[in-house]
Design brief:
With 425 residues, the chain is α/β, with parallel strands linked by helices. It is built from 14 helices and 17 strands. The strands form 5 sheets. The chain has a 7-stranded mixed sheet with strand order 4-12-11-10-9-5-6, sandwiched between helices. The chain has a 4-stranded antiparallel sheet with strand order 13-14-17-16, with helices on one face. β7 and β8 form a beta hairpin. The protein is globular.
Length: 425
């Protein structure tokens, strides 16, 4: 077996305890992954093992503390491999992406002057908007780039016009958590760097769906959360070491003055770090088993870094086929409108997160009716408030969001389509 297909996915599903759960004797269908994926068995075991065999604070002279230090170091190495970061010291841990972004926004603000500009977009989750808008009270100017409402892709001409000689930071999502659009991060980074601005990338929604390479993206910062890629609740930030070293940190006096430690406030969630390493290793194992056909795309990579790139490429290829089936099926349902890219020849420009409205029903009503069929989906604005406001949907309850992950099957996609088609209007 060399391709991630239905047979391979069936075997992988057995490794996710939650996927074995049932309600009223029937299986559960998890299309709620954009709000947090289900957790791989190895993650649960790694966290249990840490809590029983290493539970201690860090930097002590005794055995359990030394094991904790190695747990931290292993998690930094794992995420450096996943992101293709040059060094593990460029990985900062925090409770979640939002907290890390607020912390970094305060640090960056201390390097700015009133009148300096930060660019955000209408397409982003508010966690990559609000932390920067909070700096307006210090005289920082926030400029917001628009997106095209016809296909919910970032308007690159709007972005280009929004970046000026006063721009110091451009913040952008790798993929929209509301409508699935993938942004051309490298092109955006090049535009920002032309005026000497830094680039901050929210990769939370992209991380479970494709390979990440911060060096190829040429971004200065990238942040994501492990609970979106089959791991525990933990945020992780990549930052170029020289920038992390130069930025001032809000910290207690005894804390280390060097990155990444100076940005990690208080005692870390070490069991979650152990689980995150396991999640990364799980993704690498997919590359070892089903990613060999993609190895030629990544010359110069080896070991776990290569396995992660090929594994995520295998996941990406599988999910695109499922997304194709989902979109084609949804488009056949009268009164259903998809927001985002729907052209089947443009699926490489989106992740398999498909949001829609259904005529005659509110998004919440649709979600409730799907729940009666044991199908889990989200409804609302998903904290991407700018998106639903821009689309004029916020007052109508937002959107229904279906998020595919690599553990979803063709049968589950077909079941969703059939239930929606039979739903009373």
């Amino acid at each position: 077996m060399s391709t991630l297909d239905q047979t391979a996915v069936s075997s992988l599903r057995a490794e996710f305890p939650a996927l074995q759960e049932r309600a009223n004797g029937q299986p559960l269908i998890f299309f709620d992954g954009p709000g947090g994926t289900q957790v791989h068995r190895s993650v649960i075991e790694a966290m249990r093992r840490y809590l029983t065999e290493a539970n201690s604070n860090s930097h002590g002279a005794f055995l359990f503390s030394r094991r904790t230090d190695e747990t931290i170091a292993a998690a930094r190495r794992a995420l450096a491999d996943m992101f293709n970061a040059p060094r593990p010291e460029e990985i900062v841990f925090g409770p979640n992406m939002t907290t890390l972004t607020f912390n970094l926004s305060r640090a960056i603000e201390r390097t700015l002057q009133p009148g300096d500009e930060i660019v955000v977009t209408w397409l982003d989750h508010d966690a990559n908007v609000a932390p920067w808008r909070a700096l307006e009270e210090h005289g920082i100017v926030i400029r917001q780039a628009d997106f095209d409402p016809t296909d919910c892709t970032l308007d690159m001409e709007s972005l280009r016009a929004t970046i000026t000689e006063r721009t110091k930071l451009v913040t952008v999502g790798y993929a929209s958590n509301a409508v699935g659009s993938i942004n051309d991060v490298r092109r955006i980074a090049d535009l920002a760097h032309q005026v000497g601005a830094w680039v901050y990338v929210d990769a939370v929604h992209y991380a479970p769906h494709g390979p990440i390479d911060v060096q190829a993206l040429a971004c200065d910062f990238l942040v994501c959360s492990a609970y979106k890629f089959f791991g525990p609740h933990l945020g992780a930030l990549y930052g170029r070491y020289e920038l992390l070293d130069a930025l001032p940190a809000y910290k207690v006096r005894p804390a280390d003055n060097d990155p990444p430690h100076k940005f990690e406030t208080g005692t870390g969630n070490f069991e979650a770090q152990a689980g995150t390493t396991a999640a990364v290793d799980y993704l690498a194992s997919i590359g070892q088993k089903w990613g060999r056909e993609f190895a030629d795309r990544f010359p110069g990579f080896e070991g776990r870094r290569l396995d992660l790139k090929t594994g995520m490429s295998a996941i990406q290829a599988y999910e695109r086929e499922q997304c194709r089936r989902l979109i084609a099926g949804l488009q056949e349902i009268p009164g259903l409108r998809i927001y985002g890219i729907t052209a089947l020849d443009r699926l490489d420009q989106r992740v398999p997160t498909v949001s829609f409205t259904l005529e005659g029903s509110t998004p919440h009503t649709v979600a409730q009716r799907l729940n009666q069929a044991n199908i889990f989906v989200w409804d609302g604005n998903f904290y991407a408030l700018s998106v639903t406001e821009r689309l004029g949907l916020e007052e109508q309850g937002g959107l229904v969001r279906v998020g595919l992950a690599h553990y979803n099957t063709t049968r589950e996609v077909d079941t969703l389509i059939n239930v929606l088609a039979d739903m009373p209007r």
